[in-house]
Amino acid sequence: MKKRTKPGFYGTEIAALLLYLCSISAALMYVLCRSHAAVCTVIMTAVSCGMYMIFYALRRRKFFSLLAFIVLFFVVYSVVGIVGSPYVSPSFMEFIFRSSDFFSPVYAAAAIVMFSFIIAFPTCYFSAYLPRPCFLLLPAFVPLILAARTMGGMPAGYMVFMAVGFMLAAAGIARPEFPAENTYVDDKRARLERLIVMGAAGVIAAALLFVVPKNDNTPMLQYIDSVLMSQKNAFFGTRALSNFIETSQPNRGNNNPSTDILFYAQTTHPVNVSRWSFDIYKGNEGWTFNGEFSMGEQNWENGRQQLSPDSLIYSLKKGVSEGKLAEYKNELDAVNVQPHFEHSARMTIRVVDNSSTAVVMHPSQTFGANVTAPSGETARTYRNFKDEIFTKNAFGRNPTYMLEYYTDQPNEQFLDMLTRVDFRDLLSDAAREGVISESVRDEFAMESDMAELYYMAGLDGTVTERIQAVADEITSGLDNDYEKALAIERWFGEAEFVYDMDFVPDSAEAEYFMFDSKRGICTDFATASTLLLRAAGIPTRYTEGFVLKEDSVDAYGRFSVTAANAHAYSTAYIEGYGWLEIDGTRYAEVSDGTEELTVIMTVIVVAAAVLLILGIIFRRQISETVFAVVYRFRSENGKIRAVYLRTRGLACNIAEREPQSTTAEEVRDIISRTLSLDKEAAEITDAANELFYGGGKPNADTKRLYNDYKTIRKVKRSRRR
After folding, report:
1. Three-point CA angle 407, 411, 417, nearest 5°
2. Distance separating alpha carbons of residues 238 and 228, to the nearest angstrom
3. Cα 389 from Cα 543, distance rounded (Å)
4. Which among 532, 490, 334 is positioned nearest to 416, based on CA atoms?
5. With 70 as the cut, is the pLDDT of residue 73 above it?
6. Phi and psi of 113, rounded to 5°?
7. CA–CA gap between residue 213 and residue 208 (Å, rounded)
8. Which H, E and C letters describe 232-262, residue by residue?
9. Who contacts 607 (Cβ-Cβ below 8 Å, separation ≥6)?
């Protein structure tokens, strides 16, 4: 009776291993390469699997295994070192730790090499060297940690894919291989159990994909807030967004806003709701603020209530009808205006995402704000010159804002009149003759003075010669700032700009958007229009807020506002009216995605054609490579069968015979006669005969058989030459 021996454990099921490496690669590439995640996942899966195979092949040779680790480590270190210079902007570390801000093929390649090494070695170590399924979780933590660090939360589908990959790898880990002399041991039952577990994991994963809610790309900090602070969405959370932020976020591509409701807005006159504004343009870094204009004042409502342009025009015309302002009579008689009591509206904003913030969202012409907490407490509000309204501290969770704002539209007749009449003189004369109060005069005059001061502070050299030339061309021949502002807004349509949420720009610079791509999102349009307006001599600020869309009204008549409603636009000062919102996206063509789809399909077709041609040209080399990789993971009997069938194919190719009708003895005879490889042919065919006709348990050295096959193939190839 043969002695029972302890089985050896030499690796995982190849299918489970590939899926495990693919799942981690997919998660990592989603975090780093968003729009290019698919192709990068395929590449990284291949690279990480290749590195795994290197470690696996050397698992029994400790010296060579250590040497391979050292060599690969220095290869990875060199690759990352070459592209990872901190003096290059943006740097490799920015690519790693600023998820989806930009894509670089060079950085992506370096990341694939680096993370493939990081994942392949522990995967091989804990599946082949020291089988420990639980430690396979270690490589899986890499994409999770990176996703959290970059605030780019992973969608549920990727999380499930990673979990399934781990389960399959754990189920298929450490396949036992029994010594040949231990013939009575049968591992079919254990193998069947693993296959059942793997199949069950796949079924569970498919079910979970239908049950687990989608993450919708929610940033990780928001997700943590929602878990630890009972928030559905921390868009206005107590972290970085609890008060005003220091810089805007330029367009880096991969824009996938959340659809969670942030707040409800109820009004009969929907307008944009502004959040904050920026003054200083920093090119590729976006916009930042000027502290000179950020200090707020309380009791601001008293002054804002007097800044209705239609009320001013109405009072001026009334004064003319009473025999006053005689020198302006002809001009004012040509101006039409509606009664001032029709020019204001109310809006109620109720925050519902459990956030606490000091920022008061509001329409741009707000003249009254009342912020109330759910407890009924009212907060004192402040307003700065940039029209940002806020409370002193973050004010409770889910506050409610009661806002009053003017709905006055620019009066083109009045603004045209101001090209011939000095606005300051008109105000002074009207106050002197009692047509308007001195406080009204002072408020309009102060608004104009502050706008001029704001414009002077904005002359910081960010308007380049190319932008200045475009602004001069657009506004050539126009008389007033209102006409110039509208011309700049329309220019984005005339110049055939495209609004495209899916476009990934090569640069966040304004000139790239204006002169190269002409494709982007609201932040690109707002940046370009702000710079063009400033180049035209108009005081302008970059503003971010939300747009109330008609298709988002719920059954209660409320506007349901989500992150998808977030919007950026320019706010320009027009003397005689005030601050006017300019939005170039109104005239831009909206992309339907067909252009990108056409490009993608073209690339796929071309790539498929190239791969097909390469596959035809190198079919033999590819076939041999696949055979060599898969051979190591076959059972002992499977290796004998595979080597014999490949050898029979070579023999039949030499003799031009059909493989199905060729016996093992005939294969041996062909190889011996034509290639003079008697020993090699005999070893392979004898092992095959013993397998097929000797009980199915041959005692053969499969490694030697594989070397015999390689010798036969090599000699055949040399004879053909």
Report:
1. 155
2. 12
3. 13
4. 334
5. yes
6. -65, -45
7. 9
8. CCCCCCCCCCCCCCCECCCCCCCCCCCCCEE
9. none
* Beta strand 400-406 pairing with 280-281: unpaired
Which among 677, 678, 683 has a CA at the least distance from the CA of 718? Answer: 677
Question: Which residues, in sequence order, are bridge partners of residue 590?
Answer: 499
The number of helices, as runs of H, and strands, as runs of E, in the chain is 25, 20
Average pLDDT over residues 47-51: 88
- CA–CA separation, 624 vs 667, rounded Å? 20
**What's residue 95's pLDDT?**
75
> How far apart (Å, rounded) are the C-alpha atoms in residues 355 and 241?
10
Per DSSP, the residues of 143-212 read HHHHHHHTT-PPPHHHHHHHHHHHHHHHHH-S-EE--TT-TT---HHHHHHHHHHHHHHHHHHHHHHHHS
CA 331, CA 159: separation in Å to the nearest integer?
69
87: which DSSP letter? T
Alpha-carbon gap, residue 77 to 64, rounded angstroms = 19
Residue pointed to by tokens 């008697």 = 678
Give residue 608's pLDDT.
Answer: 73
Phi-psi region of 335 (alpha: psi -120 to 50; beta: other; left: phi over 0): beta
DSSP assignment of 695-721, as one string? -S-----HHHHHHHHHHHHHHHHHHH-
End-to-end, the C-alpha distance of the chain in Å comes to: 53
Sign, CA torsion 456/458/462/463: negative
Distance CA 577, CA 399 (A): 31
Cβ distance 717 to 624 under 8 Å?
A: no
Asked if 582 contacts 542 with a C-beta cutoff of 8 angstroms, the reply is no
- Report which of 644, 696, 692 is spatially closest to residue 183, judged by C-alpha positions: 696
255 phi, psi to nearest 5 deg: -95, 110
DSSP 8-state secondary structure symbol assigned to residue 572: E
DSSP code string of 398-447: S-EEEEEEE-PPP-HHHHHHTTTS-HHHHHHHHHHTTSS-HHHHHHHHHH
* Tally of CA atoms within 13 A in the half-sphere of 343 that contains its CB: 21
Amino acid at 306: Q
Measured CA to CA, the distance from residue 555 to residue 577 in angstroms comes to: 36
| 523-548 confidence digits (pLDDT tens) | 999 999 999 999 999 999 999 999 99
**Which residue matches tokens 């009579």?**
329
Q: Is 549 buried (19+), middle (13-18) or exposed (0-12) by CB count in 10 A?
A: middle
- What pTM value is reported for the model? 0.56
Residues 252 and 286 sit within 8 Å (Cβ to Cβ): no
Calpha distance 84→93 (Å, rounded) = 7
Name every residue whose Cβ is closer than 8 Å to that of residue 663 and which is 6 or more positions away in sequence: none
Q: Reduce the DSSP state of residue 313 to 3 states and report it.
A: helix
Cβ atoms 120, 17 nearer than 8 A: no
On the 0-12 / 13-18 / 19+ scale of CB atoms within 10 A, 522 is buried
Q: What average pLDDT does this structure show over 659-682?
A: 86
Which residue from 573, 678, 632, 647 is spatially nearest to 53, judged by alpha carbons? 632
H or E element at residue 351:
strand 344-351
Instruction: Identify residue 667 by its one-letter amino acid code.
Output: V
Q: Does 440 or 502 have the greater pLDDT score?
A: 440
The answer to whether 642 touches 627, Cβ cutoff 8 Å, is yes
Q: How far is CA 602 from CA 498, 599, 611, in A?
A: 21, 5, 14
Percent of the residues in the chain that have a pLDDT greater than 90, as a whole number: 26
